[in-house]
Amino acid sequence: MVQGDPWKNALKQLDDACSILKIDKGVRDYLAEPNKVLRVKLPVKMDNGKIRVFIGFRSQHNNDRGPYKGGIRFFDPEGGLEYMEKEVKALSAWMTWKCAVVDVPLGGGKGGIYVNPKKEKLSENELERLTRRFAFAISEIIGPKKDIPAPDVYTTGKEMAQIMDVYSKLSGMENEPGVITGKPIALGGSLARNVATGLGCAYCIREAAKTIGLKLKGAKIVIQGYGNAGTFAAEYLEKMGAKIIAVSDSKGAIINPKGLDSKKVLEYKNKTGSVVGYPGSKKISTEELLTTKCDVLVPAALENQINANIAKKLQCKIIAEAANGPTMPEADPIIYGKKIMVLPDILANSGGVCISYLEWVQNNMGYYWTFDEVAKKMEDHITRGFKDTLALSRKYKIDMRRAAMVLAVNRVVEAFKAKGLWP
Ligand code: NAD
């Protein structure tokens, strides 16, 4: 989603949905602009005793359906600080729509610090001081009933635990787990968080397959990106009877038309650092991977992977966007013209936010569900999200990406209008 100007992309998608729904300019403008974007200065004492100032953001896009929800990333996009601000704003808007598509009663937020902890080799202590300073700086605007952050690029359960600790102590409580999700299990994290995005994506593919009359048993699957989302999508699709024929990571792509064993490929990758070289497979290019003849293509790596040229050569029946923004806007009409069903990112990778929502619910009630209970509840949200999107795609004769936006925007407008404006 970060091709060119992510904020412009977000507005374009909103405008498309507003014109289909005939939403007037005032409401459109209300939906476009985030409610609040906080930019904070973060002075940190480094290990060498010197002070270094970092900059952080939190964008709160819309909370008409519930508290803001969205990740915190530690990242340094090429475009610099100004680009990061736009990106965070756009990502917070996409969180609003993602929550609404799968009918999770939360709004959209996103934030982060302009820093690349891996590149800069920050020590653990420096990183902890920076994280806690950020938590302090945004503490006034977050909270279990206000804004509930989560992990994102280069942040993990460890940083979430530190943010929770700062917030809890500042608000005079020892433990306020509902302020953040993606926590370690010991602090009230949810079971199934690790598998959530891949499993949710597999549920979504299962529903799409039923719709187009594709049998998942023996269906051929290609996965770009063998990380968290990609490996669990592979594992669960395999459990549903499908055959993984090609996968890739940052080092390259491999194929075996007879099928790859998803778990063994992961073991191989963990041992050697890449899927490339896996016994019995052949190395292929990225373009060959994406355009391999298959039933389902799962882009689960980076944004902007499918351009117009690739789109023309695609030979799949379903594209399930586990990654955020893997398809460039120019490719969409070509894919639609080829009658390939696209499961857009805000639907196909919403398993993560569904489980985050369920983590927050468990924290708030102080009672914890089993893995199967959590997975079943997530499945219900995703299945309904798919069916509601499909119904609108048929009603308005539009592709699934625009249908998902129409569904989401309509749900937010309904909540906004029901409340009215005050003051
Ligand atoms: P990850 O870091 O665990 O995995 C990413 C994988 O992509 C790695 O295997 C990496 O080697 C591979 N990769 C990187 N560059 C590549 C390239 N050029 N070609 C092929 N593979 C390449 O990340 P993840 O959490 O699995 O996230 C993947 C995508 O899914 C991202 O777009 C992310 O925003 C999206 N997503 C993830 C979650 C989640 O809960 N993990 C939720 C929503 C969306």
Commentary on this structure:
NAD(+) binds at residues 197, 228. GO terms for molecular function: glutamate dehydrogenase (NAD+) activity; nucleotide binding. This is Glutamate dehydrogenase. This protein is α/β, with parallel strands linked by helices and 423 residues long. Among the domains are: 36-176, Rossmann fold (3-Layer(aba) Sandwich); 196-348, Rossmann fold. Helix content is 48%, strand content 18%. It has 16 helices and 12 strands. It has helices at residues 6-21, 25-32, 80-101, 117-120, 124-138, 157-170, 196-212, 228-239, 262-272, 286-290, 308-313, 332-337, 345-348, 351-365, 371-396, 400-419; strands spanning 36-45, 51-62, 68-75, 108-114, 147-151, 220-224, 243-249, 252-260, 282-284, 296-299, 318-320, 341-343. The strands form 2 sheets. It has a 7-stranded mixed sheet. It binds nicotinamide-adenine-dinucleotide. Nicotinamide-adenine-dinucleotide binds at residues 197, 224-230, 248-250, 286, 300-302, 322-324, 349, 352. Residues 197, 224-230, 248-250, 286, 300-302, 322-324, 349, 352 line the site of nicotinamide-adenine-dinucleotide.
